[in-house]
Design goal:
The chain is of the alpha/beta class. It has eleven helices and six strands.
């Protein structure tokens, strides 16, 4: 298959060592363009990054040998301390246990539909807020869990302007929870996003001459932040 004019322009930009973005509609040949680039830069070592293992495994059969195909999580996993990786196999911290850990109590909050009425934000609800907040935090570039992150994690029915007092309490708990997730002594199950965040916070260097990142428009801020700090050419 011969490259189109647009693909030739992308190949030439890659040859010139530029970091650039290819914007195109679905099915218009973005991945094949990356394959052309990988083949053209055959004298360099490249890395193709995909969002999931299935796509990365499929890419291994399509890209030239000078291009490794991985996911961001697999990249992070290899550089994460064993004691953190072991936490993937521990027992999950259930909402009830989380409530006991932080001495959570039911909390009445005004509703979004009618701020003059209130509903109970239960211990279970607050535990789920902490879980969601950690998830949002792991995908962000923030060094700590912030008020904004916890506010975003609050239940949909809450009138958010009236829940700042509870949010302040939960922000503190969320940051303690994060420390427990990465503490060598704790035995709490983590998600894959936890070790990705831990890895990213260490400002890792990706050793490759060029990096091909597919479907970049769907990337979380933490992934884009890691890429922005690389010395390698990014496409």
């Amino acid at each position: 298959m011969k490259p189109t004019e647009e693909q030739i322009a992308a190949i030439n930009a890659a040859i010139n060592g530029k970091t650039f973005k290819i914007s195109a509609y679905a099915g218009s040949g973005k991945t094949s363009t990356l394959k052309f680039i990988g083949s053209t830069l055959s004298d360099q070592q490249g890395l193709y990054l995909a969002f999931n293992k299935a796509i990365a495994d499929e890419a291994k059969n399509k890209f030239p040998r000078n291009v490794k195909c991985q996911t961001f999580h697999s990249l992070a996993f290899r550089q994460t301390p064993d004691y953190i990786k072991e936490k993937l196999n521990f027992n999950r911290l259930l909402p009830r246990k989380m409530g006991e850990m932080f001495n959570l109590e039911d909390y009445n909050l005004p509703t979004k539909i009618n701020p003059l009425e209130s509903e109970t934000c239960t211990v279970y609800d607050q535990a789920m807020v902490l879980n969601r907040a950690i998830g949002f935090y792991c995908r962000s570039v923030e060094p700590n869990v912030t008020t904004e992150i916890v506010m975003r994690a609050m239940p949909d029915w809450v009138n958010k302007p009236d829940c700042s007092d509870l949010v302040k309490i939960l922000v503190c708990h969320a940051n303690v929870l994060w420390e427990k997730y990465i503490d060598k002594q704790s035995r709490i199950k983590i998600t894959h996003d936890v070790y990705l965040k831990y890895w990213a916070m260490g400002n890792p260097e990706i050793y490759s001459d060029f990096i091909l990142f597919d479907e970049a428009q769907d990337a979380d801020p933490i992934i884009l932040d890691v890429l922005s700090k690389q010395s390698a050419q990014i496409i």
